[in-house]
Design brief:
With about 375 residues, the protein is of the alpha/beta class. The protein has helices spanning about 15-25, 30-40, 45-50, 55-65, 70-80, 85-95, 110-120, 120-125, 135, 145-155, 165-175, 185-195, 205-220, 235-250, 265-270, 310-320, 345-360; strands at about 5, 15, 85, 100-105, 130, 160-165, 180, 220-225, 250-255, 275-280, 290, 325-330. The chain folds into three domains: about 5-10 and about 85-195, Rossmann fold; about 15-80; about 205-365, HybD-like (Rossmann fold, 3-Layer(aba) Sandwich), CATH 3.40.50. Helix 14 packs parallel to helix 17.
């Protein structure tokens, strides 16, 4: 599994200091371009972004340097209201967050971060952790802030894919052996991620991930039941995924092979309030897996290798244990006897394994 780290400014959020300067042009005694020069070329806000001065002290510094006639509260509103969300990048990060560790690493001051966090709380929830310059007292490209990323993620530099819009920061990060992507646009970012073999879930797959995660977190005890025939290529994918989950997550698992009916007593004995069955199915392209309630699987062209009816099995367990039921269907492409999993099935096995391992790891039990 790879780790992803995204910059904030000009990647996740665009910003324009010109917006603020146009609002206060009658409240300052210098030309706006002088303020821009001070901010971008003379490191005027460096100590503020590094967390070395308070917000009040920075206001006083700004006020004195540029002869500003604004109250502290007016300054905060003006200073912060300069951002716009890059919705495409935010949506992409949300999808990636289901199967990869995703971090934010940003040179940012306290006022800007608090403003953004207040106005876009859902966006920041996509990240496993936030590496913020003002909190760690280090600015990119200083080694210390990247060391924080390395330590908090637990990944080696060469396993971290780092996205930033500034070529100078990219060059410095490459010296540490991070895998770097210079952000120049959304489509270019997609191409670069593909080059690094990063899988981007579809909207349908994101919906499946969201449903799985929410339902597992909502229930006290979840049981994963793998169904399939490992002698028939992709028909065994439910078994293989369940085996991986057993080894790397805290979720209880049972593999039934081809005959679910033979395990009904064992399944019922677990008294799980959520049971997730995993089996192979044929799904519409580009969806390669989906999560379904018992009522919604009736029209699926399933390739089940066990005897009996899933609907009767679901009904039995719902009546005996009052368990909620979900069906995780993984699209199959090859059912040849004696063959290994197809490459497509192997990829879905990896993606779903990443999802369960990230969100329900054994360490989280």
């Amino acid at each position: 599994m790879k780790c992803l780290a995204f910059d904030l400014g000009k990647v996740l959020f665009d910003f324009d200091y010109g917006i603020a300067l146009r609002k206060i042009e009658t409240k300052i005694k210098v030309q706006p371009k002088e303020i821009i020069n001070q901010l971008f070329f003379n490191d005027f806000a460096k100590d503020f972004e590094k967390g070395l001065v308070s917000t009040r002290d920075f206001y006083e510094k700004f006020k004195n340097a540029f002869k500003l006639s604004l109250t502290y509260e007016e300054f905060i509103d003006t200073w912060c209201d300069i951002f716009s969300l890059n919705k495409d990048v935010a949506s992409l990060i949300e999808k990636l967050s289901y199967i990869y560790p995703v971090y934010l690493i940003s040179n940012i001051n306290e006022l800007h971060f608090e403003y953004l966090h207040k106005n876009y709380p859902n966006v920041f929830s996509f990240f496993d952790e936030l590496i913020l310059s003002y909190k760690v007292k280090s600015l990119k490209p200083e080694k210390e802030i990247y060391q924080q990323l390395k330590d908090k993620s637990g990944y080696k530099y060469e396993d971290i894919i780092y996205v930033d819009d500034r070529p100078d920061l990219i060059c410095e990060a490459k010296e540490l052996n991070l895998k770097c992507i210079n952000f120049t646009g959304f489509n270019e970012l997609l191409a670069e991620l593909n080059h690094h073999n990063i899988t981007i879930p579809t909207e349908e797959e994101k919906t499946a991930f969201k449903m799985l995660k929410n339902e597992i977190l909502r229930h006290k005890k979840t049981l994963i039941v793998g169904i399939g025939n490992t002698d028939k290529s992709d028909d065994g994918v439910g078994i293989y995924l369940t085996e991986r989950i057993k080894n790397k997550t805290h979720l209880k698992t049972i593999n039934t092979g081809r005959m679910v009916e033979n395990y009904l007593g064992k399944i019922a004995k677990e008294k799980a309030d959520l049971i997730i069955f995993i089996d192979c199915a044929t799904l519409s392209s580009p969806q390669t897996f989906g999560c379904f309630s018992p009522n919604s699987i009736k029209d699926l062209p399933l390739h089940l290798t066990h005897d009996g009816s899933l609907s009767r099995i679901f009904e039995y367990l719902q009546n005996v244990n009052r368990s909620d039921i979900l069906f995780l269907a993984i699209s199959g492409f090859d059912y040849s006897l004696g063959q290994n999993l197809s490459k497509s099935a192997e990829k879905q096995l990896q993606i779903l394994g990443n999802f369960f391992e990230k969100h329900f790891s054994a360490d989280c039990n």
